[in-house]
Amino acid sequence: MTVATSDRLPPDWLNISYFGLIHLVALLAVFPQNFSWGAVGVAFLLYWLTAGIGITLGFHRLVTHRSFETPKWVEYILVFCGTLACEGGPLDWVGAHRIHHKHSDTELDPHDSNRGFWWSHIGWMMCEHPVNQEIPRYTKDIADDPFYQFCQKYLVPIQVGLGLLLYFIGGWSYVIWGIFVRLVVVFHVTWLVNSATHKFGYKSHESNDNSTNCWWVALLTFGEGWHNNHHAYQYSARHGLRWWEIDATWMTIKLLEFLGLAKNIKLPPTQTKQTQV
């Protein structure tokens, strides 16, 4: 894959319009008539469901890295929740993230942190990035799955359906907070894993890149902020390896295991783990 420098990549006007529109509509939340505590509660619930369950647990630890196994119906529920985060279809998300890990912080990394905080946070998505052409090579294991294809193709209609449901439940305030405000928060919180955790924090392991462990990103992302640990042991279902590195997603995986819904959970070798469960 040949990657041009960021200043030579043409703008992706579709993505620019997409993210711009969502941010603009979210600003309607500042008007008092669009506020209700019920709408805020729905936004928080959907934030956890889409960012925590969908992106972190589903798209990332389960599908991208296969750090544990679940029954197919559970996998599909998690993938559907990830699709509701509207960060691209599962094929695009998983493919780009696998490419990132293979080429972390090099010219072939789609959000190479050496190009600056803005680039790794959002800039790489505002360009027609060559990474999009490489995604099929990295998603062969899921590309032919009809459910993944459905989520990939109908990403926006699925979100519209959720918006209609929220409108009938609570009116426009539920739509503005439950869709647009929530999406903006989910976007930037998850993007911090690409930007902040390659700039701020500490290193526990030599990972041959700029990845760091950042506690405040970990709190916002249900454990994804322990990013240096993750880059050192990409296959591990657990990212917070010290007792004080709180990893809410790891707790969820243990709950699924207790319920008989998770198995073959992968962890770092015992002699290199810094804590035991």
From TrEMBL:
Cofactor(s) essential for the protein: Fe(2+)
Membrane-spanning ranges: 12-31, 37-59, 154-170
Subcellular location, record wording: Membrane
CDD domains recorded: Delta9-FADS-like
EC number: 1.14.19.1
Signal as UniProt keyword: no
An individual GO BP term: fatty acid biosynthetic process
Record GO cellular component, one term: membrane
Signal peptide segment: none
Protein family per UniProt: Belongs to the fatty acid desaturase type 2 family.
UniProt-recorded name of the protein: Stearoyl-CoA 9-desaturase
Organism this protein belongs to: Stanieria cyanosphaera (strain ATCC 29371 / PCC 7437)
Lineage: Bacteria, Bacillati, Cyanobacteriota, Cyanophyceae, Pleurocapsales
